[in-house]
Amino acid sequence: MSNQVKTLVKIKHKDRNRKTVFFRGIIAFPAIIFVATFAQSSFSESESWAAGTAGVVALPTLLALVFRGKYPSYVLTFNHAVVELSTRLAAYVLILNDKYPSIEANSKVAVLFPDVEGGKKLNRVLPLVKWFLAIPHYIVGAIYLVISLVVTVIAWVQTSITGRYPEWAGEIVLGTIAYWNRVQGYMLLLVTDKYPTFRLK
Q1: ∠ at Cα 165 (110, 92), nearest 5°?
Q2: DSSP one-letter code for 57
Q3: Residues 11, 174: contact at Cβ < 8 Å?
Q4: In this structure, are residues 80 and 138 in contact, taking their beta carbons and an 8 Å threshold?
Q5: What's the pLDDT score for residue 51?
């Protein structure tokens, strides 16, 4: 098994529903609102206290790892579900497929976490500095994100007209999603101590 977070998305290149592609932003709005609700902290008025940007439980995880050397299984299950949900939404909004993001897991989109063995495989001190060590990734990731948005606009026009999603666009967009999931897995989800690669794949 990989020691980094792995993202799998089945990209639909042919026979796309041109109407749903053209109105994707409007159609996806309810799903965006639903996912956004997970970003609201249930512990404090400050989102940074208990929830990260993706709505995952971050601070309690850090505290459990540092002081107890454990990764609570219920937190891991929740974080995994939220990341998969966010990835399904990203795949839909960025028009990788026409499958409306379900609130349950499906076979078209999967995010695989490394086996943390309840936290036994993880360093107890490293979580305190991972956010700092990942700074270069924020910069590179922002560049990838801008490129992916430009690529998505081009692919959106082409797919809306022809019903075919370009393969080259899928590689870039999926690579960017996978990249951010790897970075998040390292510095926020804390499911690996392996420093993320800078590659899209």
Answers
A1: 40
A2: B
A3: yes
A4: no
A5: 35
